[in-house]
Design brief:
Layout lengths: L15 H18 L13 E6 L5 H12 L3 E4 L13 H9 L5 E6 L4 H8 L5 E7 L5 H15 L7 E5 L6 H12 L4 E5 L15 E3 L2 H4 L5 E4 L15 H8 L3 H4 L7 E3 L12 H4 L6 H20 L2
Parallel strand pairs: 1-2, 1-3, 3-4, 5-6, 5-8, 6-7, 8-9
Helix pairs in contact: 1-5, 1-11, 2-11, 5-6, 5-11
């Protein structure tokens, strides 16, 4: 494809060809993602701002490293010391930073659709990347998950069985993974969790949905565990953490029901002993740290695509 992306707000509707193209570039950049200066010319003279209205460790750090690996100047926005605390709107904050010469904004926000709203108000030459908004989307996490699967299982997603487990209701990661899996042709996508944490049929369209993990994990190639969003426990969405682990935690015995070469994924941060047992998280089938490493390469590819380096 030759048409340039301006923003990356969601993977929904992006198309399998475009996703594959981004993954190909990320794969090529992977050797440079962990260090080195060979690609510092790609975005030299460009400025990227991490505009995070929510806390983050993995996403923010990997975007900073990705921009630096490509030679961009990086501005990390500290909301605690900003005029947002004085009542300035997010759009006015963006426009203020645009006026200082920022070319691209990596935005995380608690509200659904907040990043798209900022993109609508940005200058024509400004690019925005959604680093997670509400429960809507987290497109670069979806891309790095697909890259991790592709590295271990090959490019034929149509031959794979993928299981997503846990708090799908509140997960922007799950939504972006589902968007990507559909467009890459995965025909056997399974979603499992307690009824109180499963979203509506519009989110899980085309998926097999169930509430019995022992049955759902049978014969799958990929098991994607999701973070149980414990900050929501006051809503009583699960009876107890112990019961959640008993029914939906990934243990060695449960993993044995999957294919022998199945891989285990988790977007982090993990709640060990609640979503996943230590033996599984640290076991030979875990690719969780591969996901983290792939995050830098994927975000390098996205920044290059948007800024036209």
């Amino acid at each position: 494809m030759t048409d340039r992306l301006r923003h990356l707000l969601t993977l929904d509707g992006l198309g399998g060809e475009r996703i594959d193209e981004l993954l190909d570039v990320a794969d090529a950049m992977h050797p440079h993602a962990m260090g080195g200066t060979a690609l510092r010319h790609v975005l030299a003279g460009r400025t990227v701002c991490n505009l995070f209205f929510e806390n983050s460790t993995r996403t923010r750090s990997s975007f900073q490293l990705a921009a630096q690996r490509l030679g961009a100047d990086v501005l990390n926005f500290d909301i605690g010391a900003s005029s947002v605390k004085k009542g300035e709107s997010a759009l006015d904050t963006l426009r203020t930073l645009e006026a200082m010469g920022v070319d691209a904004f990596v935005v995380r926000h608690a509200e659904n659709g907040a990043v798209a709203a900022l993109a609508n108000g940005a200058k024509p030459a400004t690019s925005l990347i959604n680093a997670g908004d509400g429960r809507s989307a987290h497109p670069t996490q979806g891309l790095l998950d697909m890259l991790t699967i592709r590295q271990r299982k090959g490019c034929d997603f149509g031959a794979l069985s993928v299981l997503i487990v846990g708090d799908v209701l509140h997960s922007r990661v799950a939504r972006s993974d589902l968007h990507a899996l559909r467009q890459l042709g995965c025909r056997d996508v399974r979603v499992c969790g307690p009824a109180s944490l499963l979203p509506g049929a519009n989110v899980t369209a085309g998926c097999s949905v169930g509430q019995t993990l022992d049955a759902m994990v049978e014969g799958v190639d990929v098991v994607m565990m999701l973070r149980l969003q414990r900050e929501r426990m006051e809503e009583g969405l699960v009876p107890s953490l112990d019961q959640y682990f008993r029914d939906f935690g990934l243990t060695p015995a449960r993993l044995a029901r999957a294919k022998p070469d199945a891989i285990v994924m988790h977007p982090g941060p993990m709640n060990r002993g609640i979503e996943i047992a230590d033996d599984v998280a640290d076991g030979a089938q875990s690719v969780i740290l591969d996901q983290v490493a792939n995050g830098v390469a994927v975000r390098m590819a996205v920044l290059k695509a948007l800024l036209g380096g």
